[in-house]
Amino acid sequence: LTAAAITGGDVLVNNVICEHLKPVTAKLREAGVRVEEEDNGIRVVGNGDLRAVNIKTMPYPGFPTDMQPQMMALLCLARGTSIVTETIFENRFMHAFELKRMGAKIKLEGHTAVVQGSAGLTAAPVKATDLRAGAALVLAGLAAQGITEISNVFHIDRGYDRLEEKLRSLGAHIRRTATAAG
């Protein structure tokens, strides 16, 4: 969902229980992303005109902490200032340091990140520090100008089977290299 939103794509995700994703789809809509619930799935259409939103992670049915890093990557490209508050996990902002290497304007204040949106991100060598951080960096890399190289992709592989193949099938310019693993 977030990949389509951050790249301006149009993606239909099938076999989805829409009710389970309400907190995520609500924030995507608030950010200006077109989200349509269909019989057996969700269509997300990114238009490139993202707005800042505030996010506070909460236990289900609140906004999921597992989506916080990906949404932060998206918010790096939104107009305005977003506030992301993490209430579930300590050290869940490790991806912010890597996003900053790509030009993101993020200020960390305890359990809160202040994200000042910008017109774009710039490719940089970055390191996946965990599964969700890795996913956020992949999304940021798809939206960045230039070629982003992500190391420690074994973190991503733990939770996303053949992610680069699936993204490539949707039109993403992404490939795995021998040096990406370590």
Q: Can you walk me through this structure?
A:
- The protein has one domain (50-180): UDP-n-acetylglucosamine1-carboxyvinyl-transferase, Chain.
- With 182 residues, the chain is an alpha/beta fold.
- The chain contains seven helices and nine strands.
- A hairpin with a 2-residue loop joins β6 and β7.
- The strands form three sheets. A four-stranded mixed β-sheet has the order 4-5-7-6, covered by helices on one side. A three-stranded antiparallel β-sheet has the order 1-3-2. It has a two-stranded parallel sheet with strand order 8-9.
- The chain has helices at 2-7, 22-30, 68-75, 94-101, 131-143, 154-157, 163-169; strands at 10-14, 34-38, 41-45, 55-56, 81-85, 105-109, 112-116, 125-127, 149-151.
- α3 runs parallel beside α5 and α4 (94-101) runs parallel beside α5.
- The two termini are 28 Å apart.
- Helices cover 30% and strands 21% of the residues.
Number of structural domains: 1
| Strand residues, percent | 15-25%
The number of helical segments is 7
Architecture per CATH nomenclature, i.e. the level-2 architecture: Alpha-beta prism
Strand order of the largest sheet: 4-5-7-6
Number of strands: 9
CATH topology name: UDP-n-acetylglucosamine1-carboxyvinyl-transferase, Chain
N-to-C series of helices and strands: HEHEEEHEHEEEHEHH
Give the C-level CATH assignment.
Alpha Beta
